[in-house]
Amino acid sequence: MQPFVMPDFYMPYPARINPNLERSREHSTTWARKMGMLDAPKPGGGLVWDETDLARMDYGLMCAYTHPDCDGPTLDLITDWYVWVFFFDDQFLEEFKYSRDLPAARAYVDRLELFMTETPPEPENAAEAGLKDLWERTVPAMSDDWRRRFILSTHNLMVESMWELDNIDQGRIANPIEYVQMRRRVGGAPWSANLVEYAAGAELPERFARTRPMQVLSDTFSDAVHLRNDLYSYEREVRQEGENSNAVLVFERFFGCPTQEAAELVNDLLTSRLQQFETTALTEVPSLLAEGGASPAEQISVAAYVKGLQDWQSGGQEWHARSSRYMNDASSLPSGPTGLGTSAATVAMGLRHRIRQHSFRPYEPVGPLPLPEPYMPFTHRMSPHLDDARRYSVGWARAMGFFDPAPGTRAGVWDEKRFIGLDLAHCASMIHADAEPEQLHLSTDWLSWGTYGDDYFPAVFGSSRNLPAAKACNDRLSLFMPLEDGLPVPEPANPLERGLADLWRRTAGPMTDRARRRFRTAVEDMTASWLWELANQALGRVPDPIDYVEMRRKTFGSDMTRSLARLAHAETVPDEIYRTRVMHELETAAQDYACFTNDLFSYQKEIEFEGELHNIVLVIQNFLGVDRITARDITAELMTARMHQFEHIATADLPVMFEEHDLDEEARAVIARDVQDLKDWMSGILEWHRRCVRYTEPELLRLRSEAMTPPLPHPPHAGLGTSAVRVPAHPTRESRP
């Protein structure tokens, strides 16, 4: 009996098929035989694949559907790549997922990477022979930038297979946020997106490839591909092979729901990601190209790439429904309409999701949100210099003009009484408990500046929905963060610019050039995320859940925190260590805990008093169609899951990473201090929220009665959380409390 009936899929693009299908079927079979894939033995006897298996899975059909417009030789090469990647996955399963021989698995993957170099060794097995052949046939046609991106995505899908092995070995099932992040690395869809560039003859221009719109296209494409695959492969992976890296299983366990309900939730998320892709392609990408002055050739390449991703989605859906590799017999197929009129049903399904996303009613009276006791295993600490920092911070904020009138407001963004009530020095004193007085002053100032900026943008630009003016304001901020010493900066035109100029002068001095560039990028990412919030607010659009979580880290200032945390030891720990799965998951788990803490405490402030829609509780309410209490409880469960993940990584994964990368004692001590900083950061932020008046109903009513700003259709939204970390002589950090 099938575990569930396949839900009805939203698919806005028609599937088409490449006329070169038959030649690629024949070619790929011959190629697989030549590489030794049809003779590769299983450890316990038999073959990983034989010719019948390969014909039944029909990767030629998959590639003909997913790349319908490329010529015959190109389709042959693309099909060979997919034969190789599925063979690798199945061989890896046979060799290591059952034996649990983790050291041998790591050695196997490390050696495979050598075949993406200019001087590869002689192949010793079919996977190595296939990768060597494919690499030599593909890379001559592509740029160095494409090669770097493709090597990274190929590295991820091979290396992160170890994450799946570790989870199977420990009987551990990922939490939903961790799963989506890791599935991108191990699932291979970013790798597929790179191959779309090759197949479409539409390599992304390097200057656009790493922008937010292009990254969102890649991420939404990847998530949709993976979620669809998880629905079709649930029976094979979970019931037959004992795997636990499957979104349906993850949702079953986290939400405690039946398999059918979990499958429907996965499909809802799949639909949301497809619609995020559409929104980005139709709105953000054209703006990106216009603002970047893209040439006609660049515009054509980007358009062909977007079309290639669309073709892959529709073709992948069609292939999954036909391939014997997956659950697709009659008892599991979607129950909805097929054939003539199906497109209308698809439109109706998509419309339901979009209506839900745009149905938010601002200023609903929700009252205080009763808060559960968050799971917090760490004790906060306090700087002895708190009182001094409190006195100092008021004078600095006054000097920067934070209490002055601001355009678009009746009086100003803040007044002195409101600033004192924020008590950002209290937050800085906990997340920076060991700082000297001067360091604590700087940390408090970053908190003050970031919180002021996060309130300034909606107060000044939100009511008028003047997004061009907001963008112009944001663009000027980079001018106050010069990368070279001695470069002149403009005369500050407002408190935001004046504060940033002062902070950059005090903070950037001791940085290396590389650290300074990285830090400025982190600040720019944070301020640009305020524009993302303004755009959603203007459209009345509740964000997609995944997009919200990932952008929340930026609006909260978490990415800047990560950069600041590295400043004290920028040359001690190699950059590649911070790009590992272990460090990325450690940091994002901590960031999500802090972000969701702020969202719980600020729910009434944002929803009832500010008409705000950027809050994880509201996002969950909207996506799942549940009440605020249920959404609150799910938020608390996500916080607990992320904290447990943080603890697991700190105690189990970090020691393994130290050994794998052969880190010296100095680097290990630096990372251990990073872990302690994150513990102080999370515990300090939680304690600050408990003590701060900013989110209490009496304070909210007081501000309303004083009418500090006139009623606005889209008024200032809730502040950032807060955060700070230790930096060399100048520990700093902002966020929006």
TrEMBL record:
Keywords: Lyase, Magnesium, Metal-binding
Family from the record: Belongs to the terpene synthase family.
EC number: 4.2.3.-
Transmembrane region(s): none
Domain of life: Bacteria
Protein name: Terpene synthase
Keyword Lyase listed: yes
Region Disordered, residue ranges: 707-737
Signal peptide: none
Cofactor: Mg(2+)
Species annotation: Actinoallomurus oryzae
Segments forming a coiled coil: none
